[in-house]
Write a structure and sequence with these properties.
Elements (H helix, E strand, L loop, with lengths): L11 E6 L2 E6 L15 E4 L6 H10 L9 E4 L3 H5 L3 E3 L5 E2 L4 E2 L9 E3 L2 E4 L2 H18 L6 H22 L19 H6 L12 H42 L1 H4 L5 E3 L7 H11 L7 E5 L6 E5 L22 H8 L4 E4 L5 E4 L2 H13 L1
Parallel strand pairs: 3-4, 3-5, 5-7, 10-11
Antiparallel strand pairs: 1-2, 6-7, 8-9, 11-12, 12-14, 13-14
Helix pairs in contact: 1-3, 1-6, 3-4, 4-6
C-alpha cells in the first residue's frame, strides 16, 4: 500500500538562467555513500499551475521508476532536456522518453477503451502508469482483472473530468450559458492555490510551496478515489453481478433481481446490463431495509439520471398503505407504494416478490 505524500520538498537550491528561475531539493548528505543513487528529476512548467500537472506530478512519483523524484519547475528547454521526465511543458509527447505534454499542435491522444476526451498531462500519466498505481493499492499483479476494472472506472469517474476541464471541453453540447457557476470541482480548487495577484511576495519559492499544496490536494483526492473504488465500488459490483446472474432463479421472466446483501446497485446494474447485453432488462430490484427489516421493491429507472421508471408499480396501488394496499393487491403484508410508483414495501420477502410479479403483469 502507498500513503499520501504530504511532506514538502527539502530546502531548495536556486539556479538562475537568463529570465528563468527553477528550483529543486538539495541532495542529502549521504551522497558520498557507495550505494547512493541520485533521485530522478521530473520537470513541469513554472508560473501559474493547473490541476493536471499537479496531479500528474503526484501520480508519477508513486511509480517505482520515479518514486520520490524531485520536481523541477521551469520552461527553459535546455533544462528540460536534462530531466528524466517532463510533464505539461516542452511540446513533446513521447512515452519512450517520458515526455508527457499535450499542448503541441497535432496532439490528439485519448485514453481509449471507448473514451474520446483529449488527454491532459494527468491523463497521459494515468494512461501509462495507472495500472501500476492501482495494482500497488490493491496489492495485486497488474494483470489481475480487478486492476483493469478499476483502471477504467477511475478514469470514467475521476480522471476524465480533469482532462476535459484542462482542455476546455464543455460538459454539455449547448451554446446556452450555464444556469449556475460551479467553482467547487477539483480543478477549480487546485487553481485557487496559485498566488493571489495582490500578494507582495511573488517569489518562485512561494510559488513552489503553493504547487506542493496543490499536488497534495489533487493527489489526496485521487488516492481517495482509488481506495473508494477498491473498497466499495468493486465489492458492490461483484454483488450486483452475482445477483444479476441469478435473476432467472428468482422469476422465470428474468426481469426481477434480488440483492442478497444491500449495496449501491443502480449504476452497476446499468453498466452490467450493457456489458453483458442482458435481455430482457431488469424491471424491479428487491432488497431488505436494514432498519425496518421489511422488504423493498424498487422499479429500475430508464437511465441513471432519469426519474422515469422502466415499469413503475401499478397506478391502482400508488399512494395506498397497509391494509388498504393489501386489499387492493391481494397480497398480504403490504406496507406502501409511492405516489410515483417507483418503490413499494412489504413486511416479507415473499410479499415483495409477489408485488414485483404483480407489477410485471399489470
Amino acid at each position: 500500500m502507498f500513503t499520501v505524500a504530504t511532506k514538502l520538498l527539502a530546502p531548495a537550491a536556486r539556479f538562475h538562467i537568463p529570465n528563468k528561475t527553477f528550483s529543486f531539493p538539495l541532495m542529502a548528505a549521504a551522497t558520498n555513500s557507495p550505494s547512493y543513487a541520485p533521485l530522478k528529476r521530473i520537470g513541469t512548467h513554472n508560473g501559474s499551475f493547473h490541476c493536471d500537472e499537479a496531479l500528474g506530478c503526484f501520480m508519477i512519483r508513486l511509480t517505482n521508476k520515479f518514486s520520490g523524484a524531485e520536481i523541477v519547475r521551469t520552461r527553459d528547454p535546455q533544462v528540460l532536456e536534462t530531466l528524466d521526465a517532463v510533464l505539461d511543458v516542452g511540446g513533446v509527447y513521447d512515452p519512450s522518453r517520458d515526455r508527457y505534454d499535450h499542448h503541441q499542435k497535432g496532439f490528439s491522444e485519448v485514453f481509449g477503451h471507448g473514451f474520446i476526451t483529449k488527454l491532459s498531462s494527468a491523463g497521459l500519466i494515468y494512461k501509462h502508469f495507472g495500472t501500476e498505481i492501482i495494482a500497488k493499492e490493491l496489492q495485486l499483479d497488474e494483470s489481475h482483472p480487478d486492476v483493469h476494472r478499476l483502471y477504467l472506472a477511475i478514469y470514467k469517474s475521476f480522471m476524465e473530468a480533469i482532462d476535459a476541464v484542462d482542455n476546455g471541453i464543455n460538459q454539455y453540447d449547448t451554446d446556452q450559458p450555464p444556469k449556475y457557476v460551479n467553482n467547487t470541482h477539483l480543478s477549480s480548487r487546485v487553481g485557487k492555490f496559485n498566488l493571489d495577484w495582490t500578494d507582495p511576495d511573488q517569489s518562485s519559492e512561494k510559488e513552489n510551496e503553493a504547487f506542493q499544496r496543490a499536488m497534495t490536494l489533487a493527489g489526496t483526492e485521487f488516492l481517495e478515489s482509488v481506495r473508494f473504488h477498491a473498497k466499495s465500488w468493486l465489492p458492490a459490483r461483484s454483488i450486483v453481478m452475482e445477483c444479476l446472474a441469478a435473476r432467472t432463479d428468482i422469476d422465470p421472466s428474468g426481469e426481477i433481481m434480488v440483492l442478497d446483501r444491500f449495496c449501491p446497485w443502480k449504476l452497476h446494474l446499468f453498466e452490467l446490463e450493457q456489458e453483458l447485453k442482458t435481455e430482457p432488462s431488469i424491471k424491479y430490484v428487491l432488497y431488505q431495509d436494514e432498519r425496518s427489516k421489511s422488504w423493498r421493491v424498487q422499479a429500475v429507472a430508464k437511465s441513471p439520471d432519469s426519474f422515469e421508471s422502466r415499469k413503475a408499480l401499478p397506478i391502482e396501488w400508488r399512494g395506498l398503505r397497509d391494509d388498504e394496499l393489501s386489499k387492493e393487491t391481494g397480497i398480504p403484508g403490504c406496507v406502501f407504494v409511492h405516489m410515483s410508483g417507483f418503490i413499494g414495501g412489504n413486511h416479507s420477502y415473499e410479499g415483495a416478490l409477489a408485488m414485483a410479479r404483480g407489477g410485471l403483469k399489470l
